[in-house]
């Protein structure tokens, strides 16, 4: 707007030259046409700020609402078109008696009651609808300015089974290897599996091996192998107040930000190798607390019995020796 005023001002400045009225009228006309043309070219009033909103991830079978925001300023809307890949599936033309049009595109089921000039809703999305969506907005005559934006949508198929964890030991000694496996049923895309010990993520290192396998349509599998002196267990062994303690091993399964599930298991840590004297035998408090708190300590009980008989044999030998000397 202000540009018209500014040029009007300069034409008034030409007025003192009274001898050339025809010339300055022509000049004014030229200036005016320049303004009109530049307004047309520079799109002073019209479509701007086109933005597309497409959910990043949608669970299979759910509805998805895609929307497009734009500012037409003083222009009128001619059409909004939506494309999946290169195929148009929905068009909104307000000047038509029935402004909404749906074009058949495989897998797309438009919910017309929830679609209008700024949004389109898809019912019961299937995996095939993973891909790029585009929204194209055109303003009406005389300029028909058009702009287009695109965004990606991922349709997710959740795993039907809960995650499961298997461990090769319920109690880990300082010099033990340890292996745990976490599995979850097939999903699309395959889930990510992350391991945590006492709430802290376990990273891949030479002493903490993590592998993950996922094939489309089959179970996703991750294994965690921990070797003696691993970074993650070293700290626990060093800080152990008594002879035994335990850690919480957790396997988290996630698919983008849409799905998170976990499975956890408590694992004992034992300082004493199985053949040495058990703390039970020495009458330490810590071990009793552990025995009451955790039913899965059969290995420890076994160790205690073993040392018992070892001490028995030793006592017998010493007694025999003493008797022989007497
Ligand atoms: C798995 O994790 C990676 C890295 O964080 C991420 O880029 C990817 O989208 C995730 N995949 C799934 C299915 O969650």
From TrEMBL:
Q: Does the keyword Zinc apply?
A: no
Pinpoint the Ig-like domain residues: 61-138
Q: Enumerate the transmembrane spans.
A: 20-42
Signal sequence residues = none
| InterPro entries, per the entry | CD80_C2-set (IPR013162), Ig-like_dom (IPR007110), Ig-like_dom_sf (IPR036179), Ig-like_fold (IPR013783), Ig_V-set (IPR013106)
Pfam family for this entry, one: C2-set_2
Q: Which Gene3D superfamilies match?
A: Immunoglobulins (2.60.40.10)
Protein keywords: Disulfide bond, Membrane, Transmembrane, Transmembrane helix
Q: What is this protein called?
A: Ig-like domain-containing protein
- Organism whose genome encodes this protein: Drosophila mojavensis (Fruit fly)
* Organism phylogeny: Eukaryota, Metazoa, Ecdysozoa, Arthropoda, Hexapoda
